[in-house]
Amino acid sequence: MDKKELSIWAYLNEIEYCLQDETLNRKRASELIDIARDILKGKVKGDFEDCGK
């Protein structure tokens, strides 16, 4: 798994957490979806892409 994929998985996990009944935070989930899309489109680097080798 490359660093971009790892970043996307991290965002997907956090989105899933935000959408659970006990935490339900749709606004934060929506923000995270936008960030994940931007990573996929190459507009921003993922969290793990900025790490060293």
The gist of it:
With about 55 residues, the protein is an all-alpha fold.
Itemize the secondary structure elements and their pairings.
Layout: H1 3-18, H2 26-41
Would you kindly provide a written description of the structure presented here, covering whatever features stand out?
The chain has 53 residues and is mainly α. Helices cover 60% and strands 0% of the residues. The protein contains 2 helices and no strands. The protein has helices at residues 3-18, 26-41. α1 runs antiparallel to α2. The longest helix has 16 residues, at 3-18. The chain is elongated, with a radius of gyration of 12 Å. The two termini are 14 Å apart. The model has no long low-confidence stretch (mean pLDDT 90).
The poorly predicted ranges are none
What is the average per-residue confidence, as pLDDT, rounded to a whole number? 90
The number of distinct β-strands equals: 0
End-to-end separation: 14 Å
Residues in helix, %: 55-70%
Which structural class matches the secondary elements? mainly alpha
Percent of residues in beta strands? under 5%
- Global geometry: elongated
Radius of gyration: 12 Å
What's the SSE pattern? HH
